[in-house]
């Protein structure tokens, strides 16, 4: 399912226009991104938790040359599914 299909499904389920559903989806994704950027987590009970995981700096290998390279530390978004979501797909 891509974004436009998700907007269509949201509009049908909530009995709202597609443009309103698109604005709601954009507002949700923007809010989650802004919260994660501030280092906070977003918990949606029954669905899951969005958080930021920090990866430490480490040494890696260039696959072409085998040379050791330094990989810098980074922050990556993470999602952990909630119990209701896990049960829904079982």
From TrEMBL:
Function statement: Histone-like DNA-binding protein which is capable of wrapping DNA to stabilize it, and thus to prevent its denaturation under extreme environmental conditions.
Keywords linked to the UniProt accession: DNA condensation, DNA-binding
GO BP, one annotated term: chromosome condensation
Keyword Nucleus annotated: no
GO molecular function: DNA binding; identical protein binding; structural constituent of chromatin
Record's protein name: DNA-binding protein HU
Family in the record: Belongs to the bacterial histone-like protein family.
Organism encoding this protein: Halochromatium salexigens (Chromatium salexigens)
Keyword DNA-binding part of the UniProt annotation: yes
Xref: PROSITE patterns: HISTONE_LIKE (PS00045)
Family matches, as Pfam families: Bac_DNA_binding
SUPFAM superfamilies associated with the record: IHF-like DNA-binding proteins
Cellular component per GO, a single term: DnaA-HU complex
